[in-house]
UniProtKB/TrEMBL annotation:
Coiled coil: none annotated. It comes from Prunus yedoensis var. nudiflora. Pfam families: DUF3475 (PF11961). Residues 40-96 form the DUF3475 domain. This is DUF3475 domain-containing protein. One of its GO terms (biological process) is positive regulation of growth. PANTHER family: BNAC09G50660D PROTEIN, SIMILARITY TO UNKNOWN PROTEIN.
Length: 284
């Protein structure tokens, strides 16, 4: 019963979010279109991937045992919130459902930019999965494959894209510094030849640093999410979500939680209609 209840709550929460997301399910045109890359949205997508990784790791056996034996047993939690273990765990379930809703909404928004009609129908397919467990396109992967392949792939994307963000910021600082040096030299007209030679060398060195930095940025763009298509990114995310849902089911089944409707539905009503920016604006 607890397992079915969680599935129902996940489906209800996600379906409310998808009401605001318009999708296209037309088949491919006769002439294949060039898949567009995510570009600057890479940083936002990396944030979503990071949240998905953290959610998956939070549902591990070790963390679930720690939650049950340590976190909800803290004296402050007992005094301020409740002494009821089932109630505290149901709150954790409610937060889990909310996180799933936000992630599913964000992925659905990305899927509208895909060319693959199955990926564009992510919202419908995921709702079917949450409702009945149907997996017509074999998106579901096992826990072992999730840990050994998908999570590591997500972590690589997040790491490289985070590095790209820092290197692009460094490039911006260097280019701004060069601009300031040029302006300063234009204002300083009466200078000795030795002073001018020193400043010219500084400009040359700075220009060389910029060249190297641009090469590094280009290299990282090619390796990161920046140069991946919406289809590729959505495919990776879409295959990860069912595994997270299965893990959440295991959490509910393990503790046989009677998830209270008001614990979840209140969160759904309070957040109904949020857009993708609400779920991922804090990526960086």
């Amino acid at each position: 019963m607890a397992l079915e209840t969680l599935l129902l709550k996940v489906k209800t929460a996600i379906s409310h979010s998808f009401d605001a997301v318009r999708t296209s399910t037309h088949p491919h045109p006769n002439k294949p279109l060039r898949k567009s890359n995510v570009g600057v949205l890479a940083f936002e997508i990396a944030g979503l991937m990071s949240k998905l990784i953290h959610l998956w790791q939070a549902l591990s056996d070790k963390n679930m045992i720690r939650l049950h034996n340590d976190s909800i047993s803290l004296e402050g939690v007992r005094k301020i919130v409740s002494n009821d273990d089932a109630f505290l765990l149901s709150l954790a379930c409610a937060e889990l459902v909310e996180n799933l809703r936000l992630l599913a909404t964000a992925i659905s928004s990305l899927s509208t930019k895909c060319q693959d009609p199955n990926l564009r129908a992510f919202h419908r397919l995921f709702l079917d999965f949450a409702d009945s467990g149907r997996d017509p396109y074999n998106w579901v992967i096992g826990f072992k494959e999730m840990d050994t392949k998908n999570v590591k792939k997500l972590e690589r994307y997040v790491t490289v894209t985070s590095t790209l963000y820092r290197e692009m910021d460094e490039l911006s600082v260097l280019e701004s510094g060069l601009s300031k040096v040029w302006k300063y030299n234009e204002c300083e007209t009466n200078q000795s030849s030795s002073s001018m030679s020193s400043k010219e060398q500084k400009i040359v060195d700075l220009q060389q640093k910029i060249v190297w930095q641009r090469q590094e940025v280009k290299y990282l763009k090619d390796r990161s999410l920046w140069s991946r298509s919406f289809d590729t990114v959505t495919w990776v995310l879409a295959r990860t979500m069912p595994a997270v849902v299965f893990a959440s089911q295991s959490f509910s089944f393990r503790y046989r939680l009677p998830i209270r409707s008001d614990d979840v539905s209140f969160r759904v009503r309070a957040t109904e209609g949020r857009k993708i920016s609400s779920s991922s604006r804090e990526c960086y």
